[in-house]
Amino acid sequence: MLGLMQSQQLLISSLIDFAERHHGEAEVVSRRVEGDIHRSNYKQVAARSRQVANALDRWNLGFGDRVATLAWNGYRHLELYFGVSGSGRVIHTLNPRLHPDQIVWIANHAEDQVLCFDMSFLPIVQAVHSRCPTIKHYIALCDESKLPHDSGVPGLVSYEAWIGRESSSYEWPDFDENCASS
């Protein structure tokens, strides 16, 4: 006898789709690193998560590739969580409380391809970026106007500029729920 109660994979993309469909206007509130309060809703979080997925596709990141974060629990980190995992990549949260040498080892061992970070962690990124050869892209979780021109981090782009040019239309892939990204 087969147990057929569950007919779909348990994927992260299912969560954001459900939230958008059934709780789209429910408010999502977070405090930005800059100090102000940011308000959005699940419909906006879902749309921006799809923009993240499109931006990762544009960089040709493959299924299972790792996207590291050094970030507080804000709305951009939430969007990354859904956009990265929902598109089949692996979100890899790095602990900012670790010594920079430990962060380097962990990022290299995971073979992170992208590092997204809050500006409060710029000094850590400045200390580690030259020792993380697998990281090809650095994204500061900030508005374009808050991005320092002399960061010392090559190719640094702001999150808003990175996802701003992407479509909010994206078809989440279907894959085995036992994959690391699910």
Please explain how this structure is put together.
- This protein has 182 residues and is α/β, with parallel strands linked by helices.
- It has one domain: ANL, N-terminal domain (Rossmann fold, 3-Layer(aba) Sandwich).
- Helices cover 36% and strands 17% of the residues.
- The protein has helices at 12-23, 42-58, 75-86, 100-110, 122-128, 159-164, and strands at 27-31, 37-41, 66-70, 90-93, 112-117, 137-140, 157-158.
- The strands form 2 sheets. Strands 4-3-5-6-7 form a 5-stranded parallel sheet.
- Strand 3, helix 3 (75-86) and strand 4 form a beta-alpha-beta unit.
- Helix 1 runs antiparallel to helix 2, helix 1 packs across helix 3 (75-86) and helix 2 (42-58) packs across helix 3.
- The longest helix has 17 residues, at 42-58.
- The two termini are 27 Å apart.
- The mean pLDDT is 95.
